[in-house]
From TrEMBL:
Gene3D superfamilies documented for this protein: Periplasmic binding protein-like II (3.40.190.10)
Species per Swiss-Prot/TrEMBL record: Desulfosarcina alkanivorans
InterPro entries per record: Solute-binding_3/MltF_N (IPR001638)
Name of the protein this chain belongs to: Amino acid ABC transporter substrate-binding protein
Keyword Transit peptide annotated: no
Pfam families (UniProt xref): SBP_bac_3
Alphabetical keyword list: Signal
């Protein structure tokens, strides 16, 4: 019995799959206001929703920030439970809830004195574009990034934990001409950095993306978690709790 008990303790110390003992580990790079710094008063509304759904059901939710490509790979292999802010493109093969947590279109921003405006895919060929490694920028722009990722006059790809913040800094330093992301993320981050008045909106793409917390295809409990989250989002909306969460970030329901 002592040997078995010791073996069990060793297993606990060396680590078990992410959802052992109802522990959900969610990962992403910071993407305000969707997900922000762990442990703060505002961790991002996707994290707030996850906690509001899973913790009353008996789960412990742990949220960590890691670079996006590493987050996707870690969730894919089952090291982590779910990727926060994922779409069907950048998390292909993951287990997705039926209910999304945002609907986004691409937004293009330049410096305040830059004359460029987005006027369809061909218009980006005249500027240097700042993007983040592993992000979903829709099929047409993903293809353009892949084709020109070694040409810094057209595309500059940043990896790391805070790629949007880094790209906005590069924009003001005139190292790139345009930053592309979702408008809510750029607006929130630029205001947080105190540079909102120095940049300007230059146009939207047209294709929407549906944003989720997507669960690991390597973990047997992922379909159950996805179903629980879907039902939870519906219940939060009906009760008014979702509105309360969104209000904290100055956002409105996407439905």
């Amino acid at each position: 019995m002592r040997i078995l008990a010791l073996f069990f303790l060793i297993l606990l110390r060396v680590g078990l799959p992410a959802t052992w003992a109802h522990d959900i580990v969610l990962v992403a790079d910071p993407w305000p206001p969707f997900n922000m710094e762990p442990g703060g008063d505002r961790e991002g509304y996707l994290i707030d929703v996850a906690r509001a759904v899973f913790e009353p059901a008996g789960y412990t939710v742990t949220y960590r920030t890691v670079p996006w490509k590493r987050a996707i790979e870690g969730v894919r292999t089952g090291r982590y439970t779910g990727a926060v802010g994922a779409s069907n493109t950048d998390a292909a093969g993951f287990v997705f809830p039926d209910e999304e947590l945002a609907r986004n279109t691409l937004a293009f921003f330049t410096r305040g004195d830059h004359p460029w405006v987005f006027d369809g895919p061909a218009s980006i060929e005249t500027v240097s574009l700042g993007v983040a490694a592993g992000y979903d920028y829709r099929q047409w722009l993903n293809g353009y990034i892949a084709a020109h990722r070694n040409d810094e006059q057209r595309v500059q790809v940043i990896a790391g934990v805070q790629p949007l913040k880094q790209n906005l800094k590069k924009l003001l330093l005139e190292r790139i001409d345009v930053v592309v992301d979702t408008e809510a993320a750029i607006r929130y981050t630029a205001k947080e950095m105190g540079i909102w008045e120095q940049i300007k909106f230059a146009g939207h793409g047209v294709e929407p993306a549906y944003i989720h917390i997507a669960f690991s295809p390597a973990l047997a409990e992922s379909p159950e978690l996805a179903g629980l989250l879907s039902r939870g989002i519906v219940n939060l909306r009906r009760s008014g709790r979702l509105k309360e969460i969104l209000d904290r970030y100055g956002l409105h329901d996407w439905k």
